[in-house]
Design a protein that fits this description.
The protein is mainly alpha-helical. Helix content is 58%, strand content 1%. It comes from Urochloa decumbens.
Length: 638
């Protein structure tokens, strides 16, 4: 029978499930399935020899697997072969742990020939080899997690601390995506089993290491680490004495009242939904707060239990509930803080809505919560040492806790966002719309022109006032009857256009501006722009109009003294001599003519303003013409 062709040098072992396995070849004595105990012992022997090598695992790990499994034509491991390899490695690990226990050495130091640390440890060496094979995909990715679970189950708590140190050192490799997906549940089960074995009072640091590892190993939005339903740990029951005993230094009723608060703290949901329980809690809390207020602590009491001096004081998980210790506990600042902080957490839960849209507290309950919360905060401020700093830290923590509560209520949305990939613009592709520096295209373009041409701001053609003929040309075209412009679209209907035109005419064409009072806005248009028939219309004097009653009365009253003054002038000039009366009649005729001329102009002046005309301008024009009439009268008299 011909020898099977060797596999390519660059071919690695991969897992092949049963459904993907090719059709089995005829039975052969050379290639049988690895399943017997003899084959398992052979695999263990191959890996024992590999553990004695001093080279890095990447130099011999793959060859070791090939020698142990001896794959035939396939260059991958099938499911049965991978399972056999895992069983053999778990057996080898069990034998190494048993040998370490018999030798009296620590598990993670077994095999160190020269006491040179963990670099020569056989168990660490085995874990490094399997971890390398799992990382490269040569074996199933969850195999190294299974070995770590078996190792922690076979070790004592003291040895588990060293094992967990190895896990922490390989955290980056174990957290890779190709390994995390297959081993996260096994690692979670391993850590939870360790936490159950540890003492919450004596192994606080180790418990914290495990929790911190899980926080870094699992993503922040991992739902397995969240209490989605908001279930409380009601099994944590605080037991205290129900009957009074001899030798108690404090009131036993206060003792029961104080420790009965723990029943409400362990299950806040039951207290908030039951009015009777809430009334009981409120009354008991009032008694406790009154006692704390009546017995304030001094600075000397704070120095007895200073957190800066005694590090162990920070690890008090549960206080003893003996009634004989009640007097000492009341003088302990940490004990008071422990109770008061529990109250703040309890109030914070009552005020914040939960997952199931529970109803908030009622109006009366809100007032009680608010008043009790203020009393608790005042007590925390006066508890030495550093009461104000402590209260500020607690408030900051509770404020951050609200964000956590709302995040869970919204469905635990993922915090991680995929990185933004900049897409390169292909040739002929559509470019991205630019963002304007100054808000819009026009302002940005003006600024760009100023940068390119420094003289753009001083150019005399940049801002230019139009001439009178240029500005009034559109209105002149609309005034042509042949144009047929409707009143709605006529330029004289545009108030802004008329207002700007009057300003131009007041500066450049005073004669045209003066015609505004007689003919309105159309009279301001220069005559050279108008057709002959239209120009003739605005060249003649306007028709007389009826005066307003108020304007007529005011002008009549002001003109009467002036006529009397003019009539008396010839007699004064004559010096009383008997001159020709006709010489004195000439000024009177001139005065009458001027008055008649004033009467002819005044109706037009006092008439209502035409389009674009305003009354203040008409009043100023009337006063000016009245003064002109008076001066003409005096000149004629002389």
């Amino acid at each position: 029978m011909a020898e099977p062709s060797p596999p390519p040098s660059n071919a690695g072992l991969r897992i092949l499930l049963s459904k993907d396995r090719p059709a089995p070849s005829p039975p052969s004595t050379a290639g049988s399935t690895v399943s017997s105990h003899a084959d398992r012992d052979r695999i263990i022997g191959v890996f024992r020899n590999a553990l004695s090598m001093t080279e890095p695992p990447e130099t011999f790990a793959l060859q070791t697997v090939q020698d142990a499994i001896k794959p035939q034509k396939e260059t991958v491991l099938v499911l049965e072969e991978n399972q056999s390899l895992e069983n053999a490695l778990r057996t080898l690990l069990q034998e190494l742990v048993s040998s370490a226990v018999q030798s009296g050495k620590k598990i993670m130091q077994y095999g160190n020939a020269f006491d040179s640390g963990e670099s020569n440890c056989l168990i660490t060496r085995l874990l490094d080899i399997v971890l390398y094979l799992c990382e490269r995909g040569h074996v199933e990715g969850g195999m190294v997690f299974q070995l770590l679970e078996d190792l922690t189950e076979m070790s004592t708590i003291k040895d588990c601390k060293d094992i967990f140190g190895y896990i922490e050192s390989q955290q980056d490799v174990l957290g890779k995506q190709e390994l995390f997906g297959r081993g996260k549940l096994v690692m979670l089960r391993t850590c939870n089993q360790l936490l159950r074995r540890l003492s919450k009072a004596n192994d606080v640091v180790f418990c914290g290491r495990i929790i911190m590892f899980l926080a870094h190993f699992f993503p922040l939005s991992e739902r397995s680490a969240l209490n989605i339903k908001g279930v409380f740990n009601t099994s944590n029951i605080t037991k205290y004495e129900k009957d009074a005993t001899d030798g108690i230094s404090v009131d036993f009723n206060f003792y029961k009242t104080l420790w009965s608060l723990q029943e409400h703290f362990s299950n806040p949901a039951l207290t908030s939904t039951n009015p009777a329980k809430w009334q009981k809690f409120s009354s008991n809390l009032g008694v406790v707060l009154n006692t704390f207020e009546a017995q304030p602590l001094s600075d000397d009491d704070g120095k007895l239990n200073n957190l800066d001096q005694e590090e162990d004081a920070a690890f008090n998980i549960k206080y003893l509930t003996s009634s004989k210790l009640m007097g000492l506990e009341l003088k302990d600042p940490s004990f008071r803080r422990h109770i008061l902080v529990q109250c703040l957490i309890f109030f914070d839960y009552l005020k914040a809505p939960g997952k199931n849209e529970k109803e908030g507290p009622a109006g009366g309950m809100k007032e009680e919560i608010k008043s009790c919360e203020e009393r608790v905060k005042k007590l925390l401020e006066v508890i030495p040492p550093k009461g104000k700093e402590f209260l500020k830290s607690i408030e900051h923590i509770l404020e951050r806790e609200k964000n956590w509560v709302w995040w869970k209520r919204d469905g635990c949305l993922a915090f991680e966002k995929p990185p933004f990939e900049k897409k390169s613009i292909q040739a002929g592709g559509r470019k991205r719309k630019p963002r304007w520096r100054l808000g819009n295209k026009e302002l940005s373009q003006l600024w760009k022109w100023a940068e390119q041409n420094p003289n753009v701001l001083t150019d005399p053609d940049r801002v230019r006032m139009p001439s009178i003929t240029e500005y009034w040309k559109p209105l002149a075209e609309d005034m042509d009857p042949s144009a047929g412009i409707e009143e709605e679209y006529h330029h004289k209907s545009n108030r802004v256009y008329c207002w700007k035109g009057l300003r131009f005419s007041a500066r450049q064409d005073l004669d045209g501006f003066a015609r505004f009072s007689d003919y309105g806005i159309e009279g301001v248009v220069p005559s050279e722009l108008l057709p002959p028939e239209v120009n003739a219309k605005f060249s003649s004097k306007p028709a007389e109009k009826v005066k307003r009653v108020k304007r007529e009365d005011s002008k009549g009253a002001s003109a009467q003294p002036k006529e009397q003054q003019v009539a008396a002038t010839p007699e004064t000039d004559g010096g009383g001599s008997g001159g020709d009366p006709e010489e004195g009649a000439v000024p009177m005729d001139s005065d009458n003519g001027a008055a008649e001329d004033g009467q002819k102009r005044s109706p037009e002046e006092v008439s209502g303003p035409e389009s674009g005309q305003c009354e203040p301008e008409a009043d100023a024009d009337d006063n000016m013409k009245t003064e002109t009439t008076s001066r003409d009268a005096r000149a004629g008299e002389k």
